[in-house]
Structure formats: C-alpha cells, structure tokens
Amino acid sequence: MPFIPHTANDVQQMLAEIDSPSIESLFDEIPKNLRKELSTKIPEGLSELAVVKLMREYAEQDVSSLCFIGAGAYEHYIPAAVWDIVGRGEYMTAYTPYQAEASQGTLQLLYEYQTMMASLTGMDVSNASMYDGASALAEAVLMAVRANRQTKSRRILVPKTLHPYYREVISTIVTPQQIELVDLPYSFTEGNTPLESLNALGDTDIAALIIPQPNFFGILEEVDQLTDWAHRKGALVIAVVNPLALALFKEPGKWGETGADIVCGEAQPLGVPLASGGPYVGFMCCKEAYVRQMPGRIVGKTVDLDGKPGFALTLQAREQHIRRSKATSNICTNQGLLVTAVTIYLSLMGAEGLRQVAINCHENTRKLFNKITKIPGILPVFNRPYFHEILVRTEKKAADILLALSRLGIEGGYATSVHYPELGECLLICATETKSERDLEVFCEAVKRCYISENSCASV
Amino acid sequence: MNNIPTELKYTRTHEWVRQEADGTYTIGITDHAQHLLGDIVYVELPEIHRAAKAGAEISVVESVKAAADVYSPLSGEVVAINEKLNDEPQLINSSPYGEGWLFKLKVSDSSLNDLLDAKIYEEHIGSS
Questions:
Q1: 3 state SS for A24-82
Q2: Distance (Å) from the C-alpha of residue A97 to the closest C-alpha of chain B?
Q3: pTM value surpassing 0.80
Q4: What's chain A's average pLDDT?
Q5: I want to staple A193 with a disulfide (CB 3.0 to 4.6 A). Which of A55, A159, A276, B101 is the partner?
Q6: B62 vs A: CB within 8 A
Q7: DSSP 8-class letter at B116
C-alpha cells in the first residue's frame, strides 16, 4: 500500500479550513511545560549505504558474553531451524489477521500452539498468547476476580517470591480497578512461601492466590499445599510458571486435589532469543469452566460445509469487537511471530527433548551451586530444592562483583538487594543447558579472583 | 410474526415476567429478543440468593454474533435458575417462554405495574 503524505499545499488548505495558523497551534491546549520539541530533533534521512554502516557500528557494540543472568529471561539454545522457518514470508505477518479464517495456516499454527501449551500446563484451554509474562499475569488477576463467583472479594494474594517486575506490572494494571494486592511474606531461610503466612490471614475473603513456580529465587514452592489451601478458602489459584520447568515438574493442572485454575507465564524460554529484553511472549491457559472469562483470542477446530476440517476463531463474544465495554479484556491480538517460534521450537524438541533441556539446566545449576559455594565469601542463602537458578550471598558488594566480571566478558548474575534489601548482598545466578563444564570453571575462577584480589572487586 | 403471550408482562429491554402460583416470578427473554440474537450459545446465569434490582444487569445471553445483558424486571432475590441452559442454551431459541426461562425471583414489594402488557410491548417492538 503506497503511503502518500500530505503536501505542503494540503496542509495549508486544511489549516485554512479550520482557521488555524499552524500545526503547532493545534497543540496549544497542552501546557508548554509538558511538551517536548521532539519534531526538531529527528535527523535528516540517510542513504541505504549510510544506514548499513551505522547499523554495523551499533551491532559491533554488542559484545558476546558468558551469561549467567536469569531473573525472568533465560538463554537457551535455539535450533537453527526455528528462526529459519519463522523467517519464511508466510509467517512474517505478526498479527492475527482481520479476516482470520482466510489464513488457515496461521490458525492451524495457533491451534497447535494452544494444544501444546494446554498439554504442558495440564489445563483444558489455552488462548493464542498474550504480550508477555507480566501482562499475562495482570490479565489473569482481572480474570480471576471476574471468574470467582464464590466471593465478591477483589483481594489477591501475591507472594513476595514472585518476580519483582511482575509485582510492579500487576500493581500498575489492576490497582486502578479497585483490586487489592496483598503481599505474602517468604521464609528467609527457605526462600519459599510458607503455609503459615497464609494461615495468618485468618478468615479474610480472597479472590485468588498467585503461585510462582519456580519462584523468583529459583526455589520450588509447595504448590500442592498452597493450591489446596486456596481452594478451601474459595479462592482461585493462578499459577505463574516457567514453561520449560513443566517438562520436569508436575503440571499446574495436577497441583493439589483439583489443580490450578489459571496458568500463565513467559514463553520466552521456548525458542525466543534474549534480544536485550524483548519482544517476548506471554501465555495463558485455564480450566474449561473459566474459558468465557479468558482474555485474548482462541482458535478452534471445526468442519466446513463439506465436512472438511478447518480452523476458526472461536468464543469471540468475549472479545471487545463484539462485547464492547464489557469485553473480558482490551487485548484483541496475540504475539504472532513469537508464538510461531514457540510452536516450532516445541515441535522440534518434542516432549523428550524439552525434558532433556530442563534436566541439563538443573544439572548445570547444581554443579555451579556446588562449585561456587566452595569459594570463601560466597554462601548459599536458601536450603530448598531449586530448578535452574540459585541465590548466593556475597561478602563483597554484589554490584561490584558484577562489574568486575563484566570486564572479563562474564554477565555474572542479577544483584537482588534493590528488591530484597533484607537478604543483604546477594546474587541470583542461572546456568542453563548452554553452559559447559569449562564455562562453569571460567565463571567460578573469575569470581574467586575477584575475592582474592586485595583491592575492591571493581579494580580486578 | 412475533409470539407475545398476552398473560405475561414485559419490559422495554425484552424480558418477560410470569407470576407463578407459589408467588414467585419467572423471568426470561422474549421471542423477539431470541430472534434478534440468533443462535444462543451460552447463558451466564445469576447465583441463587443473589439480590436482583429492577433495571440492573443480572444475566448475560450470548449468541454466535452478540452478547446481550439481561436486566432484572423486578427487585427481589433469585430463588431458582434454569440450570438446563448450561448444557442446552438453545432452549431459549426453541422455547423462549417455556423451557428457555432464565431465573425465578422472590419479590418483596411487587411493582408489576411498571411493566408492559403484551399490547404495549408489541407496539414497542413495532416502533423500534
């Protein structure tokens, strides 16, 4: 479609019609101190040659480093076929098409994605994806408040072991809707959410309990107990899970006696590169009983007039183009391109491949745990089972250690004290399947050097 | 032609009301309403014991092309819901005044006078 901008003449005519002296004057009602003169700062256009040169220069600033940061985004090996297939022209439109049923291939892919996610989470239904893990959780909270007909409560229990960024995002999105978020304390020695902290709540009415698995510290929560507690209280259970971990651990659909009600999370670990923080892709699944309260698009399988199988968007009466202001959400799309990557990744890995990746992640992290906690001045913080991330306490300032390591080409983890000052100086470290014995060795040696150095870490 | 039984009362928002022998009131949506909505695929029924307020939303009827709010014609308490609709929402299409009823109310202070009779309802839908 050609884009034809207005000519200077068009602009003059339109301004004359509405009797305005200039385009700038159209913004007069916005106070001067709130306005930014962005328009004058856009540089002149560049030739293709100049753009390529500039982009190369930018690209060279990317240094490849040995990465041990997890904290919500995880480096995994992505088979070359994944993005090769995703890059095909047929998959490049990253949006659910407006005339959805004309794109049977896209719908089939989404249907297969939904099938795999539902199977991975042990839920009845999956939608066609959300923007990212944190906003998927915010949608899950809104959904739980709508769906829980046992209570009128708008109170949600949020463990402090949930990712701090997720806690901020849900607070931003749901607090203006009169939903109350109640923090649940964690055990300083175990790193999980103890049942006692729930029992301390007494008879308070609750709409839902959020359960992260594994939690931000990499620790496994007692999901069965927590789920049963919530259900006994008439609260729904929202599971926030790393989908890769589900290849090893009990799927949320089997937590406790009746399973979690809504499952969401970040699907980045399934074939999406770190890419400096995004775009990523959220997922959401639920029990069939709640499907009409679920936001987002859902693809269903059906037959056409001749009885031939085909795919169609389904349950659209939940969505805003039909239900208007009473829609379940204003999300009317999905993360098309990244869902494509996830679907191809899952298809290529298969159940056994995924399980092997998860096992390798855990084994690498266990090896790292054993090695790194032998370094004097590095101590384990929690004493509980973990998946592929561990928290260690550092005698030196964690930020200084990270700075020193980054000079050696190592991203050594995530300093948590800004979110959890009560734990002191700590590093959250992750070793996925991408790390070799040698990588672990290099990392631990670098940390050791940092400690042996008489000077501060920053001067290593 | 629209089917508008004369023994029922109606609202401008297309609900019907029938006073039962036991003093409760049965509520559903009219033949005209089900016809406009098309094939009904889902009904969100109110909870039993929930308080109903005349003119306020109490239920949602969803068809393949729209989701419509149902407004309670009377104030009172929900004493029964038509659970058959959970599995067979199409009963609203096939029998809007019979098997397709939605819920029953116990009404403390009946204000049936505010409701329309069949003739006025027919004029109302004729003019809309």
A1: HHHHCCCCHHHCCCHHHHCCCCCCHHHHHHHHHHHHHCCCCCEECCCCCCCCCCCCHHH
A2: 19
A3: yes
A4: 91
A5: A159
A6: yes
A7: B
Instruction: Please work out, in degrees rounded to the nearest 5, the angle formed at the alpha carbon of residue A231 by the alpha carbons of A195 and A261.
Output: 110
Q: What percentage of chain B's residues is helix, strand, coil (to nearest 5)?
A: 20, 35, 45
Class level of CATH domain B9-127: mainly beta
Contact in structure between B77 and B103 (CB atoms under 8 Å) = no
CA angle A52, A56, A60 (to 5 degrees): 175
The domain spans of chain B are 9-127
> What local confidence, expressed as pLDDT, does residue A91 receive?
82
CATH 3.30.70.590 fits A80-345, yes or no: no
Residues 6+ apart with CB under 8 A from B52: B46, B58, B72, B74, B75, B76, B77, B78, B105
Q: Which of A149, A318, A323 sits opposite B47 (nearest CB)?
A: A149
pLDDT digits (tens, 9 = 90+) for A237-259: 999 999 999 999 999 999 999 99
Q: Where are the domains of chain A?
A: 66-75+350-459, 80-345
Establish, for the pair of chains A and B, how many residue pairs have beta carbons separated by less than 8 Å.
Answer: 20
Quick one: pLDDT band at residue A94, thresholds 50, 70, 90?
Answer: low
pLDDT of A454 strictly over 60: no
**CATH code for the structural domain at A66-75+350-459:** 3.90.1150.10
Q: Tokens 């909505």 label which residue?
A: B37
Q: Could you read off the pLDDT of A175-194 as tens digits, one per residue?
A: 999 999 999 999 999 999 99
